[in-house]
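Lecture 7 notes: from sequence to structure.

We start with a single chain of 270 residues. Read the sequence below before looking at the structure.
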Amino acid sequence: MVYRNMNINLIVFNEILGNEVCSRFDDNIKKEIILVIKGWIYVHNNISCVKKKIIGKLKRPYIKNKILSSEIVKIVPGAGKTRYEGWISIEVQELDITSTYDLNYYFANKKIDNILLEHVIEHIDYKNFIHFLVTIKPYLKKGAIIRIAVPDRNHPSEYVRLLTGVNGLEPGADDHKYFYGIDDFENIACQTDYKLDKVEYFDNNGIFHKNNFDLSDGYISRCSKNYKGLFTENNEEYRKMIESVPENLREQFYKLNISYTSLLADFINE
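Now the structure, written as tokens:
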């Protein structure tokens, strides 16, 4: 459907955003927002996309106040439906982690203690990941932890790599931009002046390494300990996974009771 010629009036505005959101604004404010909507619809030609952008913009002051009123600032950018007690979940429409403007808007007067990025970084370009780590530094407290989990390029299962790599085959992986290994994290941490605490990863020889980590610095669902999904719920999928692992590397999967794992590490601002 072509939306660019759509007549956006107050009735349509209510239909796009819903009564709960619209009830917060008088008609004059709504008319001003309608002008913005028309511009976005012309560019995107997609009502769903425009709705997310508008709601994201409207929620920014609320999120900023929540940050300013928090004694300890823990954020989950690109959170989706993820919600953890004591953490502030922020959608991509509300915070672009590569935008200096956005970071300054939220954190100019309140520095960050923790950032949790579970399977987010692979959706941005490699250079933007580095840009984020450099740009966010002034907004971090000393000792702040950025906990990052991404698909692991060194996972010995060829099937897992096909599912999770660049333009991966599993749902949501079709826009993966880069496939990271532990050596990438080591180089990036050195380049951006962070201490790297390696939590969970396969090395370049396909051997699994794991260290304990403090859950108060961020819960990771897609790690060896917590993973529940395709390979734990479907025997056929597990078979495809384990049979695509070289035979000399399979024993660790049985011994450690692992299937899907992430490349998981803490970038610490010293």
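The chain has two domains: 1-63, 70-268. Keep this in mind for problem set 3.
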